[in-house]
Amino acid sequence: MFKWLEKNLPKIVMAPAVGLIGWFVYGFVLWTLYISFTNSKILPKYELWGFGQYEKLWASRKWLISVDNLLVFTALFLIFCIVIGIILAIFLDQKIRAEGVLRTIYLYPMALSFIVTGTAWKWILNPTLGIQKMFIDWGFENFTFDWLVNREMAIYTIVIAGVWQSAGFVMALFLAGLRSVEDEIIKAAKIDGAGLFTVYWKILLPMMRPVFFTSFVILVHISIKSYDLIVALTQGGPGISTTMPALFMTQAAFHKSQVGLSAASAMMMFMAVAAVIIPYLYSELRRENAR
Amino acid sequence: MQDNLQTSSYKQLEQKSKYKNIFLRWFLYFVLILFASYFIFPLYVMVVTSLKTMEEIRQGTLLTWPSSLNFDSWLVAWGGRGYGAGDTFLRPYFWNSIKMVVPAVFFSTFIGAMTGYVLTKWRFKGDQWVFLFLLFGCFIPFQAILLPMARTLGALGISNSIIGLVLVHTVYGIPFTTLFFRNYYVSVPTELVKAARIDGAGFFKIFFKILLPISAPIIVVTVIWQFTQIWNDFLFGSTFSFGKAAPIQVALNNMVLSSTSVKEYNVDMASAIIAGIPTLIVYVLAGKYFIRGLTSGAVKG
């Protein structure tokens, strides 16, 4: 008995973690998947109902707006975060004075919650007392900046705040990547007469392919899950013009008693994330095994 | 000879470009400082606004410096105005968050250390798959578990309580803490453990005598990561708690959204600073470890 215990101790120690994750992650996802095939309203029902919830979901105007917003947000969020991140990383890599201070400034938004930064941006973008008033007081009398309350433009305020929060993170990833390149490679290229621009464009950035890949995966992941920032900044408004899947799901589940529908929307989000993450994990694991 | 030639020509080249690039340097600094001001701008506006009176806010612009250092809105944000019902302020929710964060960080870090230890030093058949099984938990969108979690917390009788949130944050922290410890212990030579085993040391003795003493850096990284994640969480807090049991981010959001009286932007900003200051302090004091957590949580799968 004692021998058995001793032999299996490592596995016993592993058991709580595996059990908790098995139950709370895999079990719960399967439960949600099952419920998405039922006609549950306020309370979960367990008779199967087929794909009805998914049909309802894709016929819902609000869901279509959510998906549309998500696509617009993800595209802009990705482009701006990666471009700004790369520019800052390359510039900081030029033996800059006070690099530490600048790096700290670029990255501190990552330490704050989306609720805190959303509150701050909401105030800055306030159409009467915020940026608009600042420019008017400076003499630009016809200056208007009402994106926060403008149906067409409100989604871009979320992009502004989101990029502000996450661009520094991309910078940190690329800076770490650039620093891991051997000096010899850069020296050799310079001796061959390559200018600084060519060194980065032709040699270093192509070497950063894994970093691009990682940034892409992380940023898409952040954007599919984005919820807090929207709640703090617009609550999905004006109207439903800035709603997104994560917001759609929680509203359907906890305010509108559409448990089945919300489960279906959660599964759509799950599949979107899985489509990005599974290839990523697969390639990471292969790289590790190859080592 | 060849080498000498190369270095000297390289030096010449560098000398030349030094003068040629002085303009480029200025441009570099200009862009870097421009972005720095974009990043610092909201923080500046928050601090300045929180120190103004509403009168000053209406008269000046976002950038105007306050006429005097006035901490009234901070006091109101922290302790309220003292008129009883309907008076919301952050102090009790701040303590809620502390009571939630401390045990959740402790448990998730401890469990992560144990699983990381087993996965690297007591390897068994299929441990790669177990790791992948745990790792996938880092990435699931939490919307896919909100409904069953709400029901489970209800069934356990701990919905809308701090204990419930501790459970939730502990469980969903395990994939990350496991990842951190596993990647750290992988680089510790297994020979150390083997030698100790031959000397008769058991499972726990090896952990506490050999691995724990050298784990300080990764414990710091993990604790900072978990602290920041849990302190800043809003989704779980707002879904599984309301009223008196809410953590600070939920309370902040409720305070800012409440439309009962005239909007007081100075109090809003003071509240936001109070809710953000613990993680900001940790970041400034231990930024190196914070960044290590961010990049290893992300880069390594």
What does this structure look like?
The complex is a heterodimer of chains A (291) and B (301). Chain A contains 13 helices and no strands. Chain A has helices spanning 2-35, 52-59, 61-92, 99-107, 114-124, 131-137, 154-179, 183-191, 196-207, 209-225, 228-233, 245-254, 259-290. In chain A, α10 (209-225) runs antiparallel to α13 and α12 crosses α13 (259-290). The two termini of chain A are 40 Å apart. The mean pLDDT of chain A is 88. Chain B folds into two domains: 2-70, no CATH class; 91-299, MetI-like (MetI-like fold). The chains are: A mainly alpha (291), B mainly alpha (301). Chains A and B meet through α1, α3, α4, α5 and α6 of A and α1, α2, α5, α6 and α7 of B.
CATH topology of the largest domain in chain B: MetI-like fold
Nearest-integer average pLDDT of chain A: 88
Beta-strand percentage range of chain A: under 5%
The end-to-end span of chain B amounts to 46 Å
Instruction: Determine the fraction of residues in helical runs of chain B and give it as a percent range.
Output: over 70%
Q: Strand pairing plus helix content of chain A: what structural class? A: mainly alpha
Total strands of chain A: the figure is 0
CATH homologous superfamily annotation of the largest domain in chain B: MetI-like
- Looking at the structure, what is the overall shape of chain B? flat
Helix tally of chain A equals 13
Number of domains of chain B: 2
Say how many strands of chain B there are.
0
Q: Can you write the helix and strand succession of chain B as a string?
A: HHHHHHHHHHHHHHH
Low-confidence stretches of chain B: none
The CATH architecture of the largest domain in chain B comes to: Orthogonal Bundle
Q: What characteristic shape of chain A results from the CA principal axes? A: flat
State the low-pLDDT regions of chain A, or none. Answer: none
Average of pLDDT of chain B: 86
Strand content of chain B: under 5%
Q: What is the second-level CATH architecture of chain A?
A: Orthogonal Bundle
Radius of gyration of chain A: 24 Å
